[in-house]
Inverse folding.
């Protein structure tokens, strides 16, 4: 789950990383109470979860005279389709130099990858492509509780020592918060010290509970409902509903739909051991998407009981056609249950996908 | 056959849970039909002295090893304790920890894998169906009736998609040496390269199918590292960028790990890549 800037900054500040003085407001009028505590010149930053927020008009310069009006204008905006509900009003920094610092899970080394560059404030991905040598990197096994001094020296090069302290604290945040990414871009120096001018923190979805986060708010309502049933669910923009078991098989089903020139409406992986109730919920959930015209159920497995699956499909009782491909234990019983009710069943996933694509044509 | 043969004793951790108990029975049923050692002990802390599916349960792996010989563990414990179970396996001297559990926090996985490496314990998974070497050993949850013995190796990041392709292979008369599910998480123990390296040492295996997914570059890294004839299928070509398709592993990273560019890179290495799972047997017949 991605933290918003103000949340990430508050976590960073709690771990000793200096952040600019700032206040979170929910209405433009709230700014009045903070005006005295802010310097005459400040920045209003929309707290929306989109990339390229600045270019999209989500960050505005303001001062004591025009602050309220500017905040009102920003609250009325939508940034890349997202309404602005919260704004971070923050002191404006007189930047001397910008750096980039991040720590992320590196799947190839199975360690944390620390990146640092003295050329902050730029698009880091572009820099990585054009001049990879400008980015200093170090790989650290998570069994280490802190970044060893040699590694810090290698990372920093000629950067000030206080940047090393920030990196060390960022590593602590990364470890304590089960982060998959902790990033400061830019990390800036000013005459009064070093600050995280922006902050990004993404926490591992598998660790939300132990991090005391009760629900993942980066989800749509339907995605949240899917999650409550233990499904993996992603909404797409086609008209063929897809239910499968296992991410790979479900993805392969989507790919076959694409291959036969159809368009999938969603990805839904019911997970292992799909029983009657879970299958029913899955079918109802997908059928509830207004664009869905036909649903393909592709379930294969050793432990999936086909009779349970069949009962789940039947009890969902939806209006759209359901095309079924089913293989596993009690296969015959499941098939005869569905056949009695007139469902179309096909032996291979390729045939089932072709039938679904033809059904919406 | 790679990783383990029929003589290997198996310890199942998380033995008294629903999944653990169910799959101990299935693993031992398989071991019985082929004359393998099978599961010799179950482990669940606090449940020592019980019996599950005809197997004695111990409080710890060390306790179990005092009574019986085992080389590998199959881990079914819940996500929050699975990393611990991997480390316990390594610390007790087991050479292989097959981790079925899904949703393990990735930091736990990273720590456990680093720790296991210090003890020369190979980790398969997490979030995997385990492995099956037809006629030799079943470690995990793969449905054995779809498999047949032969000389094709299979390495996969998926579960059910693996069964789909194994089924196609079997129907085409192409038996398997070992089918290993390396797991769908972003961080996993054994990679395509590791498993391919083992297949190279295995006289039985003549060609290998790799079943990959969007995300990361493990498929290419594996293909680059081997001289064995390989065929590939990559799932997720229709996956939109930035969308998470179930596996945490299936997040597209900055155009690097998307299926299209992965397929292109494999084809540039002269690896034949199937557009559909059903094409795999034909490709294998050509490269054998």
């Amino acid at each position: 789950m991605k933290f918003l800037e103000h949340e990430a900054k508050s976590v960073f500040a709690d771990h000793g990383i200096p952040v600019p003085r700032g206040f979170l407001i929910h209405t433009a009028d709230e700014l009045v109470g903070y005006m005295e505590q802010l310097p005459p010149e400040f920045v209003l930053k929309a707290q929306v979860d989109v990339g390229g927020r600045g270019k999209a008009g989500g960050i505005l310069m303001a001062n004591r005279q025009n602050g309220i009006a500017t905040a009102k204008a920003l609250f009325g905006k939508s940034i890349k389709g997202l309404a602005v509900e919260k704004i971070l009003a923050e002191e404006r920094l007189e930047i001397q130099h910008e750096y980039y610092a991040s720590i992320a899970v590196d799947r190839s080394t199975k360690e944390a990858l620390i990146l640092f560059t003295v050329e902050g404030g730029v698009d880091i991905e572009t820099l990585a492509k054009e001049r990879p040598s400008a980015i200093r990197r170090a790989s650290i096994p998570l069994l280490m509780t802190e970044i060893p001094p040699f590694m810090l020296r290698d990372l920093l090069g000629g950067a000030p020592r206080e940047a090393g302290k920030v990196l060390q604290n960022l590593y602590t945040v990364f470890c304590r918060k089960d982060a998959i990414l902790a990033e400061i871009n830019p990390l800036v120096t000013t005459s009064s010290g070093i600050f995280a001018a922006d902050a990004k923190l993404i926490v591992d979805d598998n660790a939300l509970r132990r991090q005391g986060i009760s629900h993942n708010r980066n989800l749509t309502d339907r995605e949240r409902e899917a999650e409550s049933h233990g499904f993996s669910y992603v909404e797409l923009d086609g008209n063929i509903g897809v239910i499968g078991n296992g991410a790979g098989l479900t993805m392969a089903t989507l790919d076959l739909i694409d291959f036969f020139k159809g368009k999938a409406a969603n990805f839904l992986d019911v997970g292992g051991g799909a029983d009657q109730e879970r299958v029913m919920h899955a079918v109802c959930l997908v059928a509830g998407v207004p664009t869905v015209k036909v649903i393909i159920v592709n379930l294969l497995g050793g432990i999936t009981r086909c009779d349970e699956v069949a009962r789940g499909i039947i009890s969902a009782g939806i209006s759209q056609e359901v095309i079924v491909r089913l293989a596993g234990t009690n296969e015959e019983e499941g098939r005869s249950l569905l056949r009695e009710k007139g469902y179309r069943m096909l032996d291979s996933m390729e045939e089932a996908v072709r039938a679904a694509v033809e059904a919406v044509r | 056959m790679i990783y383990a043969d029929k003589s290997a004793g198996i310890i199942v951790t998380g033995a008294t849970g629903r999944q653990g108990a169910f799959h101990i029975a299935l693993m031992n049923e398989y071991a019985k039909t082929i004359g393998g050692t099978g599961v010799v002990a179950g482990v669940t802390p606090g449940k020592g002295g019980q019996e599950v599916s005809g197997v004695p349960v111990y409080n710890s792996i060390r306790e179990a090893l005092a009574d019986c010989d085992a080389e590998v563990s199959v881990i079914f414990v819940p996500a929050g304790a699975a990393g611990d179970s991997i480390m316990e396996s390594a610390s007790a001297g087991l050479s292989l920890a097959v981790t079925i559990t899904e949703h393990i926090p990735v930091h736990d996985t990273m720590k456990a894998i680093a720790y296991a490496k210090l003890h020369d314990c190979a980790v398969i998974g997490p979030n995997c169906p385990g492995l099956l070497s037809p006629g030799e050993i079943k470690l995990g949850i793969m449905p054995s009736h779809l498999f047949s013995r032969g000389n094709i190796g299979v390495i996969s990041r998926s579960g059910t998609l693996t069964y789909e392709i194994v089924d196609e292979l079997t129907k085409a008369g192409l038996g398997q040496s070992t089918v290993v599910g390396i797991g769908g998480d972003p961080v996993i123990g054994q990679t395509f390269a590791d498993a391919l390296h083992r297949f190279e040492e295995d006289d039985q295996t003549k060609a290998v199918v790799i079943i990959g997914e969007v995300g990361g570059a493990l498929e290419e890294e594996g293909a680059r590292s081997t001289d064995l004839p390989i065929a590939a299928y990559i799932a997720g070509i229709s996956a939109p960028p930035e969308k998470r398709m179930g596996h945490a592993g299936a997040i597209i990273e900055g155009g690097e790990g998307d299926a299209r560019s992965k397929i292109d890179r494999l084809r540039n290495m002269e690896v034949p890549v199937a557009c559909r799972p059903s094409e795999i047997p034909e490709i294998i017949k050509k490269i054998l």
In short: The longest helix of chain A spans residues 161-176. The CA atoms of residues 81 and 90 of chain A lie 24 Å apart. The radius of gyration of chain A is 26 Å. Chain A has three domains: 21-91, 97-207, 221-360.
